[in-house]
């Protein structure tokens, strides 16, 4: 399965620690799976809105939910592959860009 989650500081702990939220899910993965993030800065609420999508053909996208992140620093991405022992994944192309 394709999951999308976020990491943010848990401000209620001393010192603040990393906390993970529950995942949102994309389309079932295929032999090759494309991932997409659409980021929008919501200046009125001082936050980023990040929406995920996944595709097995690179043309038809299944869009998932939106996470919000404070805009006190630039968003960062991370890719992780998890499965049973011996399972592998290869990430061969990562591109970030701003739309006009």
From TrEMBL:
<protein>
    <recommendedName>
        <fullName>Beta-xylosidase C-terminal Concanavalin A-like domain-containing protein</fullName>
    </recommendedName>
</protein>
């Amino acid at each position: 399965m394709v999951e999308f989650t976020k990491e943010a500081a848990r401000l209620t702990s001393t010192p603040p620690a990393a906390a993970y939220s529950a995942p949102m899910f994309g389309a079932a993965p295929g032999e090759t799976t494309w991932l997409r993030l659409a980021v929008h800065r919501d200046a009125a609420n001082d936050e980023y809105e990040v929406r995920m999508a996944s595709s097995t053909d690179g043309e038809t996208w299944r869009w998932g939910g939106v996470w919000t992140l404070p805009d006190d620093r630039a968003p960062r991405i991370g890719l992780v592959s998890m499965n049973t022992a011996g399972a592998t994944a290869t990430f061969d192309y990562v591109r970030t860009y701003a739309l006009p």
